[in-house]
Amino acid sequence: MRGARHAKWAATAAAVALAATACGGGGSGSGETGVLSASWGDPQNPLEPANTNEVQGGKVLEMLFRGLKRYNPKTGAAEDMLAAKIDTTDSQNFTVTLKDWKFSNGEKVTAKSFVDAWNYGAHLKNKQKNAPFFGYIEGYDKVHPESGQATAETMSGLKVKDDKTFTVKLTQKFSTWPETLGYAAFAPLPKIFFDDHDAFLKTPVGNGPYTVKQYDKGSVMSLRKWGDYPGDDKAQNEGVDLKVYTDYGTAYTDLTAGNLDLLDDVPAAQLKNVKNDLGDRYLNTPAGIIQTLSFPFYDKDWNKPGSEKLRKGLSMAINRAQITDTIFQKTRTPATDWTSPVLGEKGGYKAGLCGASCEYNAAEAKKLVTEGGGIPGGQMKITYNADTGSHKEWVDAVCNSINNALGDNKACVGNPVGTFADFRNQVTQSKLDGPFRAGWQMDYPLIQNFLEPLYATGASSNDGKWSNKEFDALLKKANAEADTAKAIATFQDAEKVVADQMAAIPLWYQNGSAAYSERTSNVALNPFSIPVYNEMKVS
Which of 107, 284, 435, 532 gives 20 to 30 Å between its CA and that of 73? Predict the structure, then answer.
């Protein structure tokens, strides 16, 4: 999804002792029978599907909305949800036919619900972070030009035929385009979204298995089972209370004390204890997540000719194997490319694509950093959010590794930002002058999703503003390729450009982790590392 993701590590065994606290309460925190309490963090933006590209907001959208497709919570395969069928004869023009469905306020979901939502998400004036996901639809350049004002209100490639049918014309062939439609940005929107936008933002109305009962920012969002939900994936509990934690160490304490039902991001400092504390009430499963260090290419000091040597040198100064073994207790695997092993070779994962640049080599690292002009100002600060995921530990570990390799104990230091929302605001507003923690939790299981949103010029989650014409051209060629094997090979050619330029430093592939209470059962994480909330049961 969606920009920076959670990652965590510990340079020492010391527990994080931040001053922040979580909202209190025992059991579910609501006093209601059958309601699950789960750890959470306030999302960066209001809960608009086309404006949410980070994990905390994504958790809520997964409960509130259903789109044309949904990714199978076990396999990740894109399966029809609201789509009765999506037909094409040329991989460029598509006809979408809908099933009978409704929003939780009783309004019917129609073709117009999708077309209006997509036009809103795409339009420049609405400032939606996921607007580029609509970039392949004909007319996007008129509603969202690269410069200047929009010259149209709607995309010409979208046409409503009747209540259950609409057509989509793309600017080029894109054989796997239907597979992307499970991403939340493509969700339909009810009329209230347009007629009373403020009311919608206060209490979002969706078409998924839950409804929003109440949201107290900084404290809790209460969602409840929608009894009339028309889908087959009905909630198996009575609701979910998402409790805001600014320190996941506190969340872990609450879980072990019986005051929290689900913690979906076990702090690194507790990985050595979790088996003893919880036994088999702990999950550690492969997920489509990669953690990286990104760079501010908008800062000329980090974007000089030859600075790719600097970035490669820094990459080689990080002892990934040591950090994943000793800090993460092997819940992470050193990354050797920019995708995820979850994709498999047929899906585009290629082990070792990064080559020597992702292998620890202190002598070569020091040489390349020098040849690349050295660290700007003599010291780099890795910026991270201090509220979730025990990021301090892994940032300290990375900096210690870099400092040891370069023989300079001041070359790298951590730069904590209080909350995830504040951190993301600094990132998206291009306010950083050094590397920052980043990563990617896939939106859909395609190699394209690990590359285009992160590294294409102007892409929705290209937070560092990296730009490369060769890379962009290869993406366009791969997307237009009808043969899947050829498309994947071309995407891998594009990934090699990322490697050559070290557009971001790949750190490790992350497993999904979760721990849960004795009264909770049927707990699982999907391949995106999101809890499958609707399947969980509470006794």
Answer: 107
pTM of the complete model beyond 0.85: no
Cα–Cα distances in Å, from 248 out to 2, 22, 358, 388, 391?
A: 21, 9, 30, 5, 11
CA distance readout (Å), 447 to 3, 206, 454, 493: 16, 29, 12, 12
How far apart are alpha carbons 307 and 309 in whole angstroms? 5
H or E element in which residue 353 lies: none
User: With 50 as the cut, is the pLDDT of residue 7 above it?
Assistant: no
Q: Angle, to 10 degrees, between the axis of helix 447-455 and the axis of helix 484-501?
A: 40
Q: What percent of the residues of the chain are helix, what percent strand, and what percent coil, each to the nearest 5?
A: 35, 20, 45
Report the pLDDT value the prediction gives residue 3, as an integer from 0 to 100. Answer: 36
- Tell me which residue has tokens 């309490």: 37
Segment (H or E) for 102 = none
How far is it, in rounded angstroms, from Cα 58 to Cα 100?
A: 25
Distance CA 390, CA 205 (A): 33
Which residues neighbour 409 within 8 Å (Cβ) at sequence distance 6 or greater?
A: 403
How far is Cα 417 from Cα 68, in angstroms, rounded to an integer? 37
Is 332 within 8 Å of 510 (Cβ atoms)?
Answer: yes
Please report, in angstroms and rounded to a whole number, the separation of the first and last CA atoms in the chain: 32
100: Cβ contacts below 8 Å, ≥ 6 apart: 230
**273: exposed, middle or buried (Cβ count in 10 Å: 0-12, 13-18, 19+):** middle
Q: H/E element holding 105?
A: none
Tell me, what amino acid is at 280?
D
pLDDT in tens, 282-326: 998 889 999 999 999 999 999 999 999 999 999 999 999 999 998
Token pair of 110 as six digits: 């129609």
Q: CA triplet 530, 533, 537: central angle to 5 degrees?
A: 140
| Residue type at position 88 | T
Using left for φ > 0, alpha for ψ between -120 and 50, and beta otherwise, residue 36 falls in beta
Alpha carbons 43 and 529: distance in angstroms, whole number:
17
Residue 27: alpha-carbon gap to chain centroid:
29
The half-sphere exposure of 355 on its side-chain side, counting CA atoms within 13 A, is: 11
- 245-260, pLDDT tens digit by residue? 988 899 999 999 999 9
Calculate the average pLDDT of the chain: 91
Give the three-state DSSP class for 185.
Answer: helix
98-140 pLDDT, tens digit per residue, is 999 999 999 999 999 999 999 999 999 999 999 999 999 999 9
